[in-house]
Amino acid sequence: MKDIFVKDVKEYIGQEVRLKGWVRNIRHSGKLLFIIFRDGTGELQSVAFKPDLGDEMFEAAKKLTLESSLIICGTPKTHQKIEGAFELSITKVDVVQYAEEYPISKKDHGPDFLLTNRHLWIRSSKQWAILQIRHTIYYAICEYLNNNNFYRFDSPILTPNACEGTTTLFDLDYFDEGKAYLSQSGQLYLETGIMSLGRVYDFGPVFRAERSKTRKHLTEFWMMDAEAAFVEHDENMEIQEGLIRYVIRTVLEKCLPELNILERDIEALRRADAPFKRMTHREAVDYLRARGSEIEHNGDLGAADEAMLTEGSDVPIFIEKWPKEIKAFYMKRDPENPELVLGNDLIAPEGFGEIIGGSQREDDHDVLLGRMIDEKMPIESYQWFLDLRKYGSVPHSGFGIGFERLITWMSGIRHIRETIPFPRMIYRIYP
RNA sequence: UCCGAAAUAGCUCAGCGGUAGAGCGGGUGGCUGUUAACCACUAGGUCGGGGGUUCGAAUCCCUCUUUCGGAGCCA
Length: 431
Known about the structure:
The chain has 431 residues and is an alpha+beta fold.
């Protein structure tokens, strides 16, 4: 007998097959028993009829509890009541383990309880759907970059020095070398990679010790940084747009069942796959002030400002050319206005907020050194970074995607904590 | 760090000064098409900790703890 996965049942209509998995739900009605079976690839209603199974096996199956593990044999057929769905006529049930009383019931639960039981919560259908989408987006990003001549170049997670102020860094003792820190961005290391490989990206966990307490923040999250030699500001945004639109199309193509489980507004996602809007920071501020925002002319966008900007927009919006005071030291100055830098943020529609930060990088040694002195940075720690501007410096640009924020938007869920298997937040590190 | 809210059965909540409640989950039984199945019966509680007011506190007051939501910071 052939072992198959739930996602493939439609190819085995009428043939007896074997599946291995767990009980999502079970109902019985006299001589009939319905097992909602899941195996990681999907779920399948399986029906047992007492005379077919025999008294002993039927009674054993009837005792199955939520999340019990089992191996079932049966014949796939079309669902009697739901068009386009399949079900399994059970011929044999082998119980692997009768699960103890499962903590997560079929009724509602609060977030605290669910997060404490996160190791079990990930089995439920919505969490399963989000994790499927996470997987799909991960590979879509890698695929797009690989097809556009980017090479994977992994940045270190343990780093010797602070990149932007030590208050937001987790530190630890590193043998006899003093303090080491968990990386909050691989970007500076990525800039070294382009001088070897031309175009590079990394993808890994980064850490921010900010005492943030919002639905958009995690202390440990995954970031994809990309960096490309000889790419300037406008082309940088074109790459970002191409990547995000590719991700949208891939998710729509591969994850429709998952989007439906999550009750995602699929049309809204479709509409986002169109040319993105572009605004300068100045234009954005004027637009917001005309609508009552109290944002300063050289100020950063608040959460309410981001929401107001994207209200009524189907597509994400690039905000470019920021005042240099509120952006990082490594961003290149706008040749048309030395008060501005060639940076861009990308703000997702539907109120999901910032998902990308990017910029053209300063490639002139002396200008960069001047900016670092202005910021009172420890120059000797960054000598390697300055070296890049001495040995074959080129114009270059890059950007970083907050992976979980992108998943939040694609999935249309409310809180970023559901997009990662084990969220790390200011008041939570278990499990 | 600041502002706001909450804590009662395993879970979600109601009760807001006078004998501790419901739904789900658990247990037992019933049902040949169920869809968070249904029906009947059943077990299950130091009302977050401490202190106070009162004849009487889950309920009012003080305090501590924990959590949640939002702001800021950022992706």
